[in-house]
Amino acid sequence: MTKTVALALGSGGARGYAHIGVLDVLEARGYNVVGISGCSMGAVIGGFYCAGKLPLFREWVGKLGYLDVLKLVDVSLLSSGVIRGDRVFSMISELLEDCLIEDLDIPFTAVATDMTAKKEIWFQRGSLDLAIRASAAIPSILHPVKMNGRTLVDGGVLNPLPISPCISIHADYLFAVDLNSDAAMPDDFVFAREDTGQQKRDWFNSVVDKATSWLDSKRRADASSHVDENIGKLEMMNQMFETMQLSLTRFKTAAYPPDLMINMPIESCEMYEFYRAKEMIELGRHIAEKALDAFEQGSCSPYGQRMA
After folding, report:
1. Motif DGA/G located where (predicted)?
2. By 3-state DSSP, what share of the chain in percent is helix, strand and coil, each rounded to 5?
3. Which residue in 308, 24, 33 sits closest to 170, CA to CA?
4. How many Å apart are CA 111 and CA 166, to the nearest integer?
């Protein structure tokens, strides 16, 4: 007998690739996902899945190396350090082909934050592309979405793991995937991590050289220091945002406990490491297997908590 699942997919930047692995395992084990709510990267993966276009997204991100990701973002390192993200979202828009949320085969909700009204916004109709853009606009890093006089940013500001939109979905189980868990990395999983240190140094030097080619040596040195300072600020903002999300997730899940919480270790991947799709998808599979093994046996594991 098919088991139906309403699925909440949390925010966490590049760790969100793990959502793909979780969906793979659910399908392989015979679970039928009948509704998804997502925030930030959870909205990206959930939206593509509900549109039946996740294979296209998987193929695209699976080819992205470190330098490919850098070419997709426009970083103003000499000013605010803000990432425009236009090229990324243009590609997402091209892959989605003007999908409307109400036309999707699987009900979907993308959660964003309305900074003007200081409340959550649930996208359940309209442009899927716009909903994803708004849900994934990380404050101080990606530009917000302006819509009907409102300023919309990442849903993780108020609800990094949006379980509440799943409550009304008729399903046998409610599962949630937390990308900001303090669970330890599994001992039996080893990353085949590519050494990107030299690539990072080469890219950093090329950015500084291009941005400061018209400056004299003294001012170039000052500009290089300023770039370094802005990168440090971005990393600090990233850490602050992740800390906030971890606290908010605990609060939200206490109010809306899922039947199963699948825990992805926050230490597995930095929020901005979008070149690590393949390994994070594999980690998602690995942890989902562990979580579901325990759930189906009526027990718990560090990676799968029975909460309801």
Report:
1. 154-156
2. 50, 20, 35
3. 33
4. 12
* Catalytic-labelled residue, pool 11, 40, 135, 301: 40
Q: How far apart are CA 155 and CA 162, in angstroms?
A: 8
Q: Catalytic pick from 154, 178, 224, 268?
A: 154
Respond yes or no: is residue 40 known to be catalytic: yes
85 and 218 Cβ atoms separated by less than 8 Å:
no
Neighbours of 144 (CB within 10 A): 19
Residue 43: both structure tokens together = 């909205």
List alpha helices for 36-115, DSSP H. 41-50, 54-62, 66-72, 86-96
pLDDT by residue (tens digit) across 229-280? Answer: 555 555 666 666 666 666 677 767 777 889 999 999 988 988 878 889 999 9
Name which of 161, 164, 175, 156 is nearest 307 in CA terms.
Answer: 175
Residue range 185-210, pLDDT digits in tens: 998 887 765 555 555 555 555 555 55
Segments in the chain below pLDDT 50: 77-81, 215, 220
